[in-house]
Amino acid sequence: QVQLVESGGGLVQAGGSLRLSCAASGVIFSINDMGWYRQALGKQRELVARIGSGGKRNYADSVKGRFTISINFAKNTVDLQMTSLKPEDTAIYYCNAVPNWDIWGQGTQVTVSS
């Protein structure tokens, strides 16, 4: 059974950095593309970063050059390094497969103050 547990969010000033981590049990990274999604208040959930089973990475234009997605195979986590954070990055961040499964974790809140 798949279980996704996100962590690492917090409150940070604009220009700061955060590293999110998603503990993914029951997931085989060599089979599934994985991604980080975010949902800001009043907006739809969007995919911001994706890593393929072969290691290829794709990013939404809004985060390109600032966010880096990676997989830690030793810890079985999907990580998101976020730098140069902006207030518009404020959202709840989730990890999931791409395309996503029906199961979602609780997410982790990222708040960027101006």
Q: How does this model look, in words?
A:
The chain is mostly beta strands. It contains no helices and 10 strands. It has a 6-stranded mixed β-sheet with strand order 2-10-9-4-5-6, with no helix packed on it. A 4-stranded antiparallel β-sheet has the order 1-3-8-7, with no helix packed on it. The radius of gyration is 13 Å and the shape is globular. The model has no long low-confidence stretch (mean pLDDT 95).
Which helices and strands occur, and which strands form pairs?
Elements: E1 3-7, E2 10-13, E3 18-25, E4 34-39, E5 46-51, E6 57-59, E7 67-72, E8 77-82, E9 91-97, E10 108-113
Parallel strand pairs: 2-10
Antiparallel strand pairs: 1-3, 3-8, 4-5, 4-9, 5-6, 7-8, 9-10
Q: Strand content of the residues, in percent?
A: over 45%
Overall SS class = mainly beta
**What is the topology, as strand order, of the major beta sheet?**
2-10-9-4-5-6
Biggest pleated-sheet summary:
6 strands, mixed
| Model regions low in confidence, pLDDT < 50 over at least 5 residues | none
Cα shape = globular
Mean pLDDT: 95
**Number of contiguous helices:** 0
Note the gap between the termini: 40 Å
Rg result: 13 Å
Order of SSEs = EEEEEEEEEE
Please give the share of residues in helix: under 10%
User: How many DSSP-defined strands?
Assistant: 10
